Amino acid sequence: MAAPMKVEIQEISQSKGRGFIAIHPICEGEILFEEEPIVCCQFLWNAFYKYAACDHCMKALETAEENARRLCNNHTLVLPHPECCSVNKQLYSVCPHCQVQYCSEVCRDTAWGMYHESLCTRQSSKDPDHPLEKLQEIWRNLHFPPETANIMLVARLIATVKQAKNKDLILQKLSKFCRTTKNEEKEIAHKLLGAEFQAQLDVLRTHTTEALHEETVETWFTPEGFNSLFALIGTNGQGVGTSSLSTWVNNCDDLDLPSTDRETLDAFIDKLYEDIEKESGNFTNCEGSALYALQSTANHSCEPNAEVVFPHDNFIVGLKATCDIQPGEEVCICYLDCCQRGRSRHSRQKILRENYLFRCDCSKCLLEAGDPEETSSEESEDDMEES
Ligand SMILES: [Zn+2]
Ligand SMILES: [Zn+2]
Ligand SMILES: [Zn+2]
Questions:
Q1: Relative to the alpha carbon of 336, which ligand is closest?
Q2: Which one of the ligands is nearest to 316 CA?
Q3: pLDDT tens column, 46-73
Q4: Residue ranges near ligand 3 (ion) with Cβ within 5 Å
Q5: Which of 79, 172, 202, 275 is buried most deeply by CB count within 10 Å?
């Protein structure tokens, strides 16, 4: 890395474990670091619904115009400023054995060297009886959208260990992720798989073993070990989202245009998003999840001073300051999505406890600690659905 890091990993507290502390003044908008994941994988329903992404780096493969046409179901739509689309299809490449798509030969070769040699079905048309196809089918039937985890992330992790020249190195990286107790692991599995989770974990474990058994990590294939692995991706998996249309919009925003042209373009984009929302709702991105060695160290705050960004429209994550940060301050992100963030302390704590297994004691939660334990009617309904 060229510039020295402005944050340092330090022990924060017994309850929070390690986190990022600013060691230099940080300005709003600064990217503190960027990193590639240990593993990443697109969600299965997302891929099933034809959100085309590079099978390795998750870069969106549709052009912005193709993307816009599909999402608003208008096949004659023409986007102005095609130069703002960053997609270059001439660089695309496929696995010659199974035809999965990559954004470049580099991604194809990297994937093959890291995990794809073990995961390639070597079939150009899908054979539903292949153990890996069966595993995916089972997962899709267990875990409907909105997707939050992915059995193929587990599969890629096993395959990565299988193919690693230095297996200790990757196992050492994994050992840094947060540890959970057996009871907490059950809670996570319950949350992700529903009431029948124990039986379903067994089914997933059997099929994963059949497809990918690996001696180096023998314990991962035992019932306890598999539950732990599952909990690891459940609590540490970071959502990844990419979109060629968003990239096009961002590039359009940067264009230097006469004011009337700017107004026309902005109106066009507003109308486009309206049409997309009518046709496709909020599901507009290629979505998946990934494990990041560094980024996963960032703790949560309901009043964060940083956010996770994907500055290259692929799986490279960046940690970006959302305000000025002084040396000594902890750099925190918010694990909650936009709608969850505005909720009462009671609701926020419930979501965090159930999904990430911790009690939030951020400044905002402490400040609101005296508030009555009430939720608005909408929140109560959600609480009922969730329980
Ligand atoms: Zn790629
Ligand atoms: Zn292949
Ligand atoms: Zn909080």
A1: 3
A2: 1
A3: 999 889 999 999 999 999 999 999 999 9
A4: 302, 360, 362, 365
A5: 79
